[in-house]
Write a structure and sequence with these properties.
Structural class: mainly alpha
Shape: globular
Mean pLDDT: 88
Radius of gyration: 20 Å
Oligomer: single chain
Largest sheet: none
Number of helices: 7
Strand content: under 5%
Helix content: over 70%
Low-confidence stretches: none
Number of strands: 0
Distance between the termini: 40 Å
Length: 206
């Protein structure tokens, strides 16, 4: 059993998405622990520095995500005809926000390292705003899907549907709830990284 878990972990870390999730979880964990511990020096400062380094690592890796996002956006298009119209609309807007996010972040990164002569801060602000919009749209889409799933689940309880179909619906509900929680956590960070004065921007640990 332990060997199987190890193989699964290694297999996940060998993929781009799995490694990004691991770096993301470690970065957020260091940020949370560094902000919770007392004193800026010593271990708290080291954890916050590690979080910043891991965040920079993810920024560099996202330089290669544009084409994958473009393929996803093109394959989804305006969404399948049988899908809920509101879910389709939110998904299309979310794809547009994500697609615009990448070049803005790339320009900000290029300005920071000196490849492009431009002020990086305005591009960081634009990319963060687009990221926040995409996250908000994703939350609204998941809430709509969750509402539909719960309605289907209540209908199945009143009918003679199979336990397997109800179990599948419950699994989808859990997946959407998890997606909402993850997007909400990211949205709180996105707002923190916006210019001070907007909601709680700049109030989290650096």
């Amino acid at each position: 059993m332990a060997a199987g878990a190890l193989r699964g972990l290694v297999g996940a870390l060998e993929t781009h998405r799995g490694r990004d999730w691991a770096v993301r979880a470690l970065s957020y964990g260091c940020q949370l622990a560094g902000g919770a511990l007392p004193g800026p020096a010593g271990l708290p400062g080291g954890l916050l520095a590690a979080s910043a380094q891991l965040s920079s690592c993810r920024t560099a890796l996202r330089l290669f995500d544009d084409l994958a996002m473009l393929r996803h956006s093109c394959s989804y298009g305006l969404g399948p005809e049988g899908e809920d119209a509101l879910v389709r609309g939110l998904s299309v807007l979310c794809n547009v926000a994500n697609q615009l996010y990448y070049p803005c972040e790339h320009l900000a990164w290029a300005a920071d390292v000196g490849i492009v002569r431009a002020g990086s801060q305005k591009w960081w602000t634009r990319s963060t705003a687009l990221w926040g919009c995409a996250l908000l749209l994703g939350i609204l889409r998941s809430l709509r899907i969750l509402f539909q799933l719960r309605r289907k689940l209540s209908q199945h309880k009143c009918s003679s549907s199979s336990p397997q179909s109800q179990q599948k619906l419950r699994a989808q509900v859990k997946a959407e709830v998890l997606s909402i929680l993850m997007d909400a956590a990211d949205l709180s960070n996105a707002i923190h990284w916006l210019p001070p004065g907007f909601l709680w921007a700049g109030r989290f640990p650096p």
